Amino acid sequence: MRADGWLPEWARGLPWLPILVLLAVGVCALAGETIMPFDPNELDLGAAFVPPPWQEGGKTAYLLGADNLGRDILSRIMAGSRVSVIVAFYAILFSGSIGALIGMVAGYFGGPVDAVLMRLIEIQQSVPSIALALILAAALEPGLWTVVVVIVLTYWAWYARIIRGEIMALKGRDYIAFARVAGVSTPVIFLRHLLPNIFNTLVVLATLQVGQVILFEASLSFLGLGIQQPDISWGLMLSDARQYITNAWWAITMPGLAIMLTCLSANVFGDWLRDRLDPQLRQL
Amino acid sequence: MKTWITALTLASLAALPTAAPAQAPAQTPATGTLSIGFGAEAVMMDPSRSAAGVDQYFFGQMIEQLTRTDPKLETINWLAESWTLTQDGGKPVITVKLRPGVKFHTGDPMTAEDFEFAYERQRDPKISKWPHLLAAVEKFEVVDSLTFRVHFKEGDGSFTSGNLILWALPKRHLQKVGDEEFARAPVGTGPWKFVSRTIKDELRLTAFDDYWNKEHRPTVKNLVVKIIPEDLTRVAAFKTGAIDWIDAVPPAMVEEFRKMPGVKTGSFVAPNNMYIAMDAVDKTSKFHDVRVRQALAHAIDVDAIISKVLFGQGERYVQVGRGSLGFDADLKPYPYDPRKARDLLRQAGYPNGFEVPCYNLTTPREPYQKEVGEAYFAYATAVGIRCRVQGQEYGTWITFGRRDRQGHIDGLYSNMWGHGLPGDPGTPWAGHVHSYVRGEGWGITSVHDDPELNAMIRELKRTMDLDQRADLIKKIARLKQERVAGGLPTYRPVVTLAWRDKVTFTPWPSPGFWRGMQEIGLKQ
Amino acid sequence: MWRFLTRRAWQGAISILGASIIIFLISRLSGDPILILLPNDASQSLIEETRRTYGLDRPLWVQYGIWAQKALAGDFGRSYRWEMPALRLILERLPATIELAVFGLLFSVAIAVPVGVLSAVHRGGWIDRVGRVFAMLGQAMPTFWVGLLLILVFAIHLNWLPAFGHGTPAHVVLPAIALGWYPVAAQTRIVRSAMLDVLDSDHVRLSRALGTPERLIVWKYALRNAAVPLLTMLGVYFAAMLGGAFVVETIFAWPGVGRTVVEAVFSRDFPVVQAGVLFTSILFVLSNLLVDLSYGLVDPRIRDAR
Question: Fewer CB atoms near the end CB (10 Å): N or C, chain C?
């Protein structure tokens, strides 16, 4: 008898811990202000560099310590979750939609259309994404929406390639051929016949991308061309803390742990989802 | 017989030891290499073509000026033996007598023609980025090989307060090797000779044996300047002994360095003056009202910022820093008084405060610049000037500050002005206190418009007599302070240098902003 | 085979060309390098004069044409900041980046192979679990954070290794670890699943039945076959290293192309950005070409289908 035998079929083997972490992040993002112990942007020069309570000099009020300007790190981490969620949501939504559309068009129509689109995909993939992101961010003036745009422009190709492959495999199926013969218009074929079949793949890709997006945004913010103040991002917190690496190890460690836990949870959850929905993507 | 005796007398006179000079001249040892570390490096090593102060870190070791600031922050004659300011029919004339016996690294003697050549180069817009500094000069006259006269159309204070602007460039050598080669391997009259340079890595110099100043010169033969921009790397290199002298100890580690055994430190004010700009020109700007500007002045606890955010590595200044021309010890800063700030806001018609964007430079031109900006704006928010902080990286920030690019600053803007060591505020005030006049060069970064101040600044520009300048600067500073005109001054960054006990080092402020290796050596 | 190669080479060239156009356009939009170069109070006329000298007043497509024409002849312009040829600036630093990427790859392979093999051999056991968790952790940590932690622990606290710069072999250890950390997860997974496939195969069962020692089977035969998918993907990973180098070089003050390009973006030093991205793209495309080549060698169906 399995321990979770009492659960419905779909819920068995659910990775509970990752889901809890992701829910926590979501809650912080949506309702953070109500549960934060401090205002994340409130300065208190008197509390600068207060270490976490278990270290000498620490105060229980600052559960994870305070940064160089006396701001509570726990509150800032909670506030940073909002940025992560917003960026992940919109970036994945747009890059997924655009990428899927382009992939579908390329895979379905084939021929010269496919050739052009494939060239575009290759061009985009011949530049290291961070280089492209940096230059784009400098051109568009750094900020939250610029980060979203940059991620969309960097990741659409990944979706497009995979979806294209799927569509090419689907194209040969009989019912698609029947639909074409029957004169069904292309948009309808896309919506009614193709989309439902790649939906699972899209969902899995999206979940797998969450981790990547979070890491990418963190890197961009770390380099200084991502999220700007007063918005708070975990990557930006790490960047700020870098010059105090010898004074405040907690300022370097805590935001990084937040990134790691969120990413890990997203990846584990994504893996589980993939195993259930679309195991062929295993080689990703 | 007579000739025989004369010859003997002369010979014996020649054999007598020569009278010892008042001070034993420092001897350059035949060997010895000292490795030092800078946090930044020059971009251009040709003084005529230089645009950034950091360039002096390099060429300042090799090329010299007519006057110089000494370690006591006093201006002394350097390559100029003497100079005078006279009037000729109402127009100023500066007559310079050069020191005899000064040689360039190539062996050529320094003459007035070299300065004429430097003058031509520095006013040529194809070569120089600062031709406007010599715009007031009518004629350069070479009187003889060691004397020249500079005839002015009208007074220009930046000349006398800027070490007479000109650098000693080797005319014959430069014309022979060309601009490119000279910028690659500069030649001057300075204590150090160029050996080699690898960009982003190091600069190698060797002591100039025929250097003219026998009293103040390096006492080690070779100098290796390593360029290590990352703070922790530089500190690590110092701690492991790879270098024995570093500049810019990170403020967070100054305490640690002061306690380090076998290490000496020195803290000096850097020639940058930080301030907060606010638009007082536009009638719709909240800061048009002087009371709002004064409210901001009372709202920010600069001392706390210096102590907590900068780890004490900052010096409060009121309008003109200590040691600069026109420093007024009697002028006091606005005291930190948030209650008074709120009162002033109420009087100005903002009982509940108001919201403004606040622009913060995020690229650290000075240490912790971003954090300081955040602190400023947090204090402002606390009294009711609610800041919507917006970070700007350097490229964006610098465009934003220029009136010919950005019409109007709708909030607070973190800014800075700098002008040499010890520094004279004349030219910077012309840039950010005088109102913006299109096409004329006045007020290119200004958001203020006060006719009385404008007139005084114009007069300051024409004033060449240093005492008169000092008086006028004090008058302007007082008005500036009362009216909080041209921004709210906050602090001047302090830079801490560190060197091992075995290194002898006397800090010269300029050229090179304390990185001048005029007197450095290894203890024997 | 030749047709395949030439076709891919052509595609690669077009990709690089397209990339250079895109980078050119975007970087020109990113701001004004002149303002950053000149002193604060430079007059309008000086700004315009300098702009003319740098050729930045011509229409964009003209500027690109000039750049491309010169680039084909090997002249990538002069860095605005350093007054030296951009090409020299980049080429001098390219070897350091390649060195870092190679060592990063070596590190990741050195971890991924043993962990993957052991995971497969002891499938389901604790080694497998630990290995999988370890691999997953790697994929969840931002590269720059790994770098910072490595510096904090090994350079600052323990003082075992130098944190920054370039020179001795010890200098490359921490940066290589930081760089190679992320791909370890993916590579471990590949090795593990490839090993599992091979270990289940009939050939192996037969060898076992014939009494060949397990150790030989695992480490000689199975590994050789499992290495194939890993090797074919090496090009992809090398390319990924090049991307990751941008951040790692910045943290560790590694004198490579990545760091130079990052700095150049900030100071709007267009020639250096162009040249740097171009050469990184070339390396990128070459690595991908290598992958296709090895795939093509391994599986003829793929090369004919493309």
Answer: N
